[in-house]
Amino acid sequence: MDTQNLSAPPRPQSRIAGKNHPLAGGLVHDNSRHTTRFTVIGNHLAQHPDLSALAIGLAVYIQSLPSGAHVDIKTLAARFPEGRTRIAAALRELETHGYLRRERQRIPCGRIITRTISCNQPGADRHAQDHEARPRKRRTATAPKPLPAVPQPAYPAPPLLQTATDLLAGLRRHDPRLLLSERDTAHLAPGVAAWLERDVTPTAVRHALTSDLPPEPLCRPAALLAHRLTVQLPPPPSFRVPAPTPTVHHPFQTCDGCDRAFRSAGPGHCRDCRTNLLEAA
């Protein structure tokens, strides 16, 4: 029976090219499976052809941070030795390629803050945004068209606007097709006030809005009224210089004290006699 030769050298193991020990020189991975404290980074970022090494490193660092961490230039410059200028340039690279977004938001106390949003896969984010935008686009297509702008009064006093609102609310009594909603009335009221401010009477404004209406049904009566208020707006009244106060010429009176003649609205004493009477008193 043969005995095992313990001094014989072990059989050499074959090497498979590309696994652990490649036949040619190059990269060798010595990997261990992470079970805690790890971040998944896509090759689209790690091997991005247009990003600088600093930008890729900052993106990896930012994606590894928890929500709420500060990633402003000052904080990052205190963490890394590259300095504010280079870090700011790297952040702009990440913004250009969609890995970072900055949004200004108003918090409940009223203060405006800037939030930095880290995106680990910009392409997927754009796809989600496009998917959300399509239903909104369909809803926008059915929204009513905004009304044309109307003239604005120089001094929108509340009584003037109230008179304009009452005038618009009463148009339906002249033509049932001119029944306006509360929102349309609020939009048109300043235009009517601009007419009233130019010395146009409410009757004249009402006539301009209701005369010569087309016989067919009015699809958008408020838009028609807004158009008329704009294109038919009369010019402001011309400035008139107030006439000077006429000079009053009183008749001659005879002074009761010295018989001197003087002008006055009624009999009495002249100026000198009135002065003497006051001094004597």
Could you walk me through the main structural features you see in this protein, from its secondary elements to its overall organization?
The protein has 281 residues and is mostly helical. Among the domains are: 43-123, Orthogonal Bundle (Arc Repressor Mutant, subunit A), CATH 1.10.10; 158-231, no CATH class. 40% of the residues lie in helices and 7% in strands. The strands form two sheets. Strands 1-2 form a two-stranded antiparallel ribbon. It has a two-stranded antiparallel sheet with strand order 3-4. Strand 3 and strand 4 (261-263) form a beta hairpin. The protein is elongated and about 140 Å long. Residues 14-18 have low confidence and may be disordered.
Structure characteristics:
281 residues, mainly alpha, Arc Repressor Mutant, subunit A, two-stranded antiparallel ribbon, two-stranded antiparallel sheet, 10 helices, 40% helix, 7% strand, elongated
Outline of the structure:
This protein is mainly alpha-helical. Helix content is 40%, strand content 7%.
